[in-house]
Write a structure and sequence with these properties.
The protein is of the alpha/beta class. The protein is built from six helices and 14 strands. It has two domains: about 100 residues, Elongation Factor Tu (Ef-tu), domain 3 (Beta Barrel); about 170 residues, Rossmann fold (3-Layer(aba) Sandwich). Helices cover about 30% and strands about 30% of the residues. A seven-stranded mixed β-sheet has the order 5-6-2-3-4-1-7, with no helix packed on it.
Length: about 375
């Protein structure tokens, strides 16, 4: 029996395949859509490396079409004419900016469209002119920049050689005079007060030791608050009168501010006189029967006339009710043969010893 070939079935299959291929091509040319398209002519004023028919067209970063045709401009071989097909709803204007962008790691080129506000006249779509250098890739831009740098270096080779030679001469001069430069910098540093600061020398006020036997002791509790003084005396520096400083005392410091130092050494003096009835500080617990209030008037080196150390105190004894029961001025001075920190500290020790003995004797009699 002879088999009949299904010619109708085969013919229908081939026709369907052809239609599918045509449909696929139509879909590809319309970016997967079947909406209306508008064709625009684009002119690039330079090379468009890598741009191919079928390359994408982006408007503000969104794909709206593709390149359908490429060719050289017949009137100027340096220009490239391209035809793009984009969705008709794309707001392409007569002044839309046209460029070429390279996407991905492989640098696939696409045509880019941006902005524009001038609406083209009805009729033939306008020809869009790409920006100058729109087809220039990063590699080409780098090459052009290096070429320009090379041109500048070539044009200025003579001055550059002279500059390098002058720098070498200058560096050789610096190398030969390193020692002198170090000396100059050290002098500037010393003049401006830089460098490592000088170590300060601290002096303490010595407490009197031999105050004699306690013939009479304190019959009531006594407190010695921190003495009062003008702001100038609230310092650790050694003061001079009338005013000014002595350069030889720049590194001199008392162990504490003058009021606190006088308070501490007065209390120590009373303790050395009669440890069993030693006075308290005002900050100690409890309330003393009496307070010895000290106001420091002078604690300085006087340079007018005979150079001497001067200490002057105003002392008052008050009871619990704040009533003053006794008051007096205690002043003394000590000749200073040599104006230097060590000699001055020794003179202050002698003057303070006399002040402490006088205050102890007076206080014991008054309380």
């Amino acid at each position: 029996m002879e088999t009949r070939a299904p010619y109708v079935l085969i013919g229908s299959f081939v026709l369907a395949a052809i239609l599918a291929v045509f449909g696929f091509v139509y879909w590809l040319n319309n970016t997967g859509g079947i909406g209306p398209r508008t064709t625009y002519h684009v002119q690039f004023q330079g090379p468009v490396p890598g741009l191919l028919v079928g390359a994408g067209v982006l408007f503000n970063g969104i794909r709206v079409g593709e390149v359908t045709q490429l060719g050289l401009a017949p009137d100027n071989p340096r220009f490239v004419n391209a035809t793009i097909s984009v969705a008709s709803t794309t707001p392409v204007r007569a002044d839309s900016r046209v460029g070429l962008d390279f996407q991905g790691l492989t640098g696939v080129p696409v045509v880019t469209l941006e902005g524009g506000i001038i609406v083209a006249k009805s009729g033939e779509p306008p020809t869009l002119i790409a920006e100058a250098g729109a087809g220039q890739s990063m590699t080409q831009a780098a090459r052009d920049a290096l070429r320009r740098v090379d041109t500048v270096l070539e044009d200025n080779s003579g001055p550059l050689k002279d500059t390098i030679a002058n720098l070498k001469t200058f560096s050789d001069g610096l190398a030969r005079n390193t020692g002198k430069i170090d000396g100059i910098l050290a002098g500037l540093e010393k003049m401006t007060g830089g460098g490592t600061p000088a170590q300060k020398v601290t002096y303490d006020l010595r407490t009197p030791q031999n105050l004699g036997p306690a013939g009479k002791t304190l019959s009531a509790s006594l407190a010695i608050p921190e003495p009062t003084a003008v702001a100038m005396l609230q310092t650790q520096r050694m003061l001079f009168a009338p005013g000014g400083d002595n350069p030889g005392f720049a590194d001199f410091l008392w162990a504490d501010s003058i009021p606190k130092l006088v308070q501490a050494r007065l209390i120590d003096s009373f303790e050395n006189y009669d440890i069993a009835h030693a006075p308290l500080r005002a900050a100690d617990l409890g309330q003393a029967d009496y307070q010895l209030l000290i106001d420091i008037r002078r604690f300085r080196i006087a340079t007018e006339g005979e150079t001497r150390v001067e200490i002057g105190l105003s002392a008052r004894i008050v009871d619990k009710n704040g009533k003053v029961i006794a008051s007096r001025l205690v002043e003394t001075s000590e000749k200073l043969d040599k104006v230097e920190p060590a000699a001055a500290a020794a003179a202050f020790d002698l003057a303070f010893t006399r002040i402490a003995k006088e205050l102890i004797g007076w206080t014991v009699q008054a309380v």
